[in-house]
Write a structure and sequence with these properties.
Layout (H helix, E strand, L loop, with lengths): L1 H5 L2 H7 L8 H11 L9 E6 L5 E11 L4 E8 L8 H16 L4 E7 L3 H10 L2 E12 L2 E11 H28 L1
Parallel strand pairs: 3-4
Antiparallel strand pairs: 1-2, 2-3, 4-6, 5-6
């Protein structure tokens, strides 16, 4: 059962590989390293819950470079909850944390060619497409590109000023959907 949860087409595309289940000792070590938010591996992990308190995914701040003020974010939303705004909302919360609490300045990320949902989310967040890493990975018999995105703290602030009213409406929509389910 555990293997089938990790070895899905979406997870393979996300990781660009098949993710094998950890050993008990490996899982224990991973939990210990990440449980208290003082990780020395450059990753801070969170669970994403809906308004009913159900776990619907995970998000992490990673590749943190304090000296240069750069970072990346990894996110996974369970399939039944995709396309409903949960990922975008979680990303906004983590971007606020990174920019204002951690005082980082630049978000860098990449989206695998064909991952339209993630590319759409990056653009919705205000990220700028900065380039393409051509034929970077080989999956299912073909080479695929990585689309490179970036967002500075100043760009994020400006986007939040322009989009504040829209965010309130999206939050209300998510709350209505949660109440209906």
């Amino acid at each position: 059962m555990y293997f089938f949860m990790l070895n899905t087409p979406a997870r393979r595309l996300l990781q660009c590989a098949i993710e094998l289940p950890p050993t008990v000792s490996g899982a224990k070590k991973f939990t210990e390293e990440n449980a208290d938010f003082s990780s020395t591996n450059g990753r801070i992990m969170f669970t994403i819950e809906n308004l009913n308190g159900e776990s619907i995914g995970g998000i992490n701040l990673n590749s943190i470079d304090e000296r240069n003020g750069t970072f990346s974010i990894g996110i996974v939303i369970e399939k039944p909850y995709r396309g409903k705004g949960y990922g975008t909302k979680a990303m906004k919360i983590l971007l606020k944390y990174a920019f204002f609490e951690r005082r980082l300045n630049k978000f860098n990320d990449s989206v695998l060619e064909g991952n339209e949902g993630s590319a759409k989310m990056m653009k919705k967040l205000g990220c700028v497409q900065e380039g393409v890493r051509r034929q970077a990975v080989y999956i299912n018999g073909q080479y695929l590109d990585f689309i490179l995105f970036g967002l500075t703290k100043d760009e994020f602030i400006e986007k939040q000023k322009r989009g504040g009213r829209v965010e309130v409406e999206q939050t209300k929509k998510i709350a209505r959907e949660a109440a209906a389910s």
